Amino acid sequence: MLSLKNETDIIREARDLIRAHRMALSWRQDDLAKRSGLGIATLRRFESTGRIGFAGLAKLLATLGLTDRFLGALIPPAPAPKDINEFLAAAPAPARQRAPRRAKGN
Question: How far out from the chain centre does Cα 8 lie?
């Protein structure tokens, strides 16, 4: 999938989303630092600049309960069908439906 975001945009957005998630949990920076095992200076630097090592980011994601969402975003999408016949062959068969019952007295 094509994205027009550059690395600066990605870092800024990730920083802002993780900060918002921390705040939604009503955790202060020192709460998250202690729970995650990161130093408070590391967390403050991350929230101000977006700079952090991957191990530190992994600690934050795990502590905030975001690991599955992060890893799920890295799963490659299913390949697109090559033509209409392949698309139709992959489509599920329509579910059978019963006709509505007639009202009594009709």
Answer: 19
- Cβ(14)–Cβ(58) below 8 Å: no
10-56 pLDDT, tens digit per residue, is 999 999 999 999 999 999 999 999 999 999 999 999 999 999 999 99
What does the pLDDT read at residue 106?
A: 61
Stated as kind and residue range, the H or E segment containing 62 is helix 54-64
Give the CA-trace dihedral at 38, 42, 45, 50, to 10 degrees.
-60
Task: Output the domain CATH number for residue 16.
Answer: 1.10.260.40
Determine, yes or no, domain membership for 13: yes
CA-atom Rg of the chain in angstroms: 24
